[in-house]
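[agent] plan:
  1. take the single chain provided in the ticket
  2. run structure prediction with default settings
  3. attach structure tokens to the ticket
  4. add a short note for the reviewer (M.T.)
[agent] executing step 1
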Amino acid sequence: MSLHQRLSEARTAAEVPEVPRRQILDEINKRIHHQLIKALGPELYDRATSSDELKVKIAQKLKELISREQTQLSTAEKSRLIGEITNDVQGYGPLDQFLKNPEITEIMANGPDAIYIERFGKLELTGEKFLDETHLRRIIDKIVAQVGRRIDESAPMVDARLPDGSRVNAIIPPLAIGGPKLTIRKFATDPFKVEDLIGFGTITPKVAMFLESCVRGRLNIIVSGGTGSGKTTTLNVLSSFIPPDERIITIEDAVELRLHQEHLIQLESRPANIEGKGEVTIRDLVRNALRMRPNRIVVGEVRGGEALDMLQAMNTGHDGSLSTVHANSPRDVLSRLETMVLMSGMELPIRAIREQASSAIDIIIHQARLKDGTRRITHITEVQGMEGDIVTLQDLFLFDFSMGLDESGKFKGKLKSTGIRPKFAQRLHDVEISFPPEMFQFEYVDRRSAS
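[agent] step 2 finished; step 3 output follows
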């Protein structure tokens, strides 16, 4: 071969980009992963097989599959492939590292190639990916099967939970365009206590004392706010104030509340089966709870016709009930409840619904996720009754936005008393629960900013 020919071949070789080693390993990972799923099949989901036994089976099969690979692999690369695929098959794939990170509060898979996380209240795109849509769908199926639910074309969306209580929502085609979507709202292994909320600035020590008195005094409380504002965390903390000698019944779509009282019964709704039968709704559970001799009823979230049953329970001797509602403000809570009561199918006049709500609800606690990423209680509002056709509300504590931001862009404001003493103070005094005189001492609040 002439020198000219050798130089020409060298130039041609140089023009062909070398495939990165990581890309080659990813292709091998994907190929072996699918071969393993095909080979072991149902054994991966056999509950009779312990985790350790399954791990040994997976490792043996992986060694066999890797030995057939034509691509030369180093000992370290083989070990890495076995570790990655084992974690994928036994755990939740690329989500495992995020589930173990306590700083991350939410995980959002918009598809196999786009995994977002929420850290310190801010969203960020990660570099992690699923192998493909099949891999993402398999993880979704695994999560859903753990709580006895299903997701398929006839039921293409589902709410579920992880063993640690984290809330899971999944939706697949044909409803989800472009592939399956998965959202995980994480919950702390050790649930937040009132001291944690004070440390975060969500509430002040004075407000914490006020809310504890309200719960012990058996006031009916609604926690409102938008998605991700911390309603469930606040509801959990409020529930911790319930005396240990009371019988508590919690009702949820997917169990999230983590109460430590001994006399606790947890109820969870159930979707319809593949034949469209067997559905048990929140409304069914609220009705059933009334026959279970509850001291307290705690509904994780009111979102439909069960609002009517909840209001009736609050008005018929079940004082001290707690629940959450999606709303933009305390006033919007009442509007939403009106709409949800109408969803029950009962054609009640609006005035009758408002009278029910005004006599049932004592306090609305409104919570928001602010633009700095923090979650703060912004309103604590008393429902005082009816004036004409309007339900009268009175703010007792408001978040003072006028204090501005600090150097790091965080709000410096806190909840401040409006100087108004609630009408229910005498009612609590009658059951020997009193507020100190300084509890409702006026603190300046810029109401224009708060609104």
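[agent] step 4 note for reviewer: The first helix runs from residue 3 to 15.
[agent] ticket updated
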